[in-house]
Sequence to fold (276 residues):
Amino acid sequence: MSTQISAKTVGWEHYQTLGEHYDKERPGYPISVVHEIAGRALSLPHSSRRVVDVGCGTGIFTRMLADALDGSFEVRGLEPSSMMIRQATEATKSLRPILFVQSTAEKLPFSDRTIGVITAAGAAQLFNRMLFYAEAHRVLVDNGLLAILQNKRCHQTGFFQSFELFLEKFVPGYRTGTYADARGGHSVANFEAELASDDRFSNVMVQRWDWTRTFTIESFEAFALSTIQLKMARTAHAKDIIMKELRSILSEHCDAVGSINVIYSTELTTAVRTVQ
Fold:
């Protein structure tokens, strides 16, 4: 398998300073997506019932998946950011039996063929995926499941279209359809193509769920402040200029009570470890 992803992983380091709004304002995932993964996980033999959520951040998806599995799996969340790990541990304390571990995606702290399911929710674009796929193959059991989720903004019309133009204007190197990556820039993340070209995995499949979220002006501003893109914009330009432009777009698109309805598409790419 070929890849142009650098071996140096630096993109995740942005999250060390993004925790203030992150857990509260991130969009989350449709419960039907969580149930899709949980259903496939529960079909695995009992000896394979260990799931690892890689790049788990503050544990938003990890907690959703643990709830859906209802104690039938050992659940761990891996995250390189020490700040995110602290928030994940605190948010999960006394609620669910989840162990959060500080670790990168490129060197998973598990023995060979010991994990039934690996998930990465809104994080794999930041991985050195050449190394991550090799590690996933190493630790997954035969027919073990790799599941990568990505929330995509439906940007053809409305507020998200204006927001994408705002990002293109102020974020160095950003273009609609790209994501912050392991090199500290932006690039396209085509997980389906990467896994389809990797003979260590098979049964590659993509599923999509569209859903609507309602923001207030204040909650969208808080959400934007939790993103790498706005951090990059505020680094490259004066903070006052950035926030004034963002608030102008929000005011233009909100309704009479200050609400903004947007559409997300959650894309789930799955593959299984090829039996060898």
User: Anything to note?
Assistant: The radius of gyration is 19 Å.
